[in-house]
Design a protein that fits this description.
Number of strands: 7
CATH superfamily: Response regulator
Largest sheet: 7 strands, parallel
Radius of gyration: 27 Å
Structural class: alpha/beta
Strand order of the largest sheet: 1-7-6-5-4-2-3
CATH topology: Rossmann fold
CATH class: Alpha Beta
Number of helices: 5
Helix content: 25-40%
């Protein structure tokens, strides 16, 4: 009986000790910082933004590192806007040493943009580019089915982009296709060669840095 009481007494003391230690104040290393403490601000792009978030575009003065990089561009129509963007893309890709393959939508086809996109995907490019608002609806559907393929949309944006779709927009070129309204009036005159080149440099540089799935706003 004496041994039983002794074991019971020891167990009780241990339980009290454990409860006391559990209620003690945390060590200094795990303490929360005092109110008003400052936190280090991470530089831009240190943390990849959530898909669809709009951030400021910062186009580099020049772009390199495209050697061996295959870009397939879907040209939705023969409009002046598409021609301007295509010319800008050619200049940027050529200066960067990349390879460009053009896939034009055939007029009169049942689904001209869809057929051009299928041909673009067939060449197994590193990147599929879409020009302007004419590609938005088809890119919005196909890009969500092909998460391993990178897409770049310039002069428009997807309503609900996945993290494999990067877009570059500016005032007058913010179309979201038929699924949602643009951020403002669409103005064809806002699509210039200079702005197109800046947009492609910004978009390609962002993809090179693995900052994808975002909308880059070009001021």
């Amino acid at each position: 009986m004496t041994h039983g009481r002794t074991r019971y007494g020891v167990a009780t003391l241990l339980a009290v000790a454990l409860l006391s230690s559990g209620c003690s104040a945390p060590e200094e290393d795990g303490a929360l910082p005092p109110a008003g403490a400052s936190y280090e601000t991470l530089p831009p792009y240190e943390t990849v933004p959530e898909p669809g978030r709009t951030i400021e575009a910062t186009p580099p003065a020049s772009l390199s590192g495209l050697e061996g990089y295959l870009i397939a561009v879907v040209v939705p129509d023969a409009s002046a806007s598409s021609a301007t963007l295509l010319s800008a893309l050619k200049d940027v890709v050529s200066a960067g040493g990349g390879d460009l393959q053009q896939l034009a939508a055939a007029e009169g086809a049942a689904d001209p943009v869809g057929a051009a996109l299928d041909r673009a995907l067939d060449v197994e490019p590193d990147l599929v580019v879409g020009l302007g608002d004419g590609i938005v609806d088809m890119f919005g559907f196909e890009s969500a089915q092909r998460l391993g393929q990178q897409f770049l949309v310039v002069g428009a944006q997807l309503a609900e982009p996945t993290d494999n779709v990067t877009a570059v927009v500016w005032d007058g070129a913010t179309s979201r296709g038929s699924a949602a309204g643009p951020d403002g009036d669409l103005v064809d005159a806002s699509i210039t060669e200079q702005r197109g080149e800046a947009a492609f440099r910004a978009g390609l540089a962002s993809i090179q840095d693995d900052t994808t799935g975002v909308v880059l706003y070009l001021d």
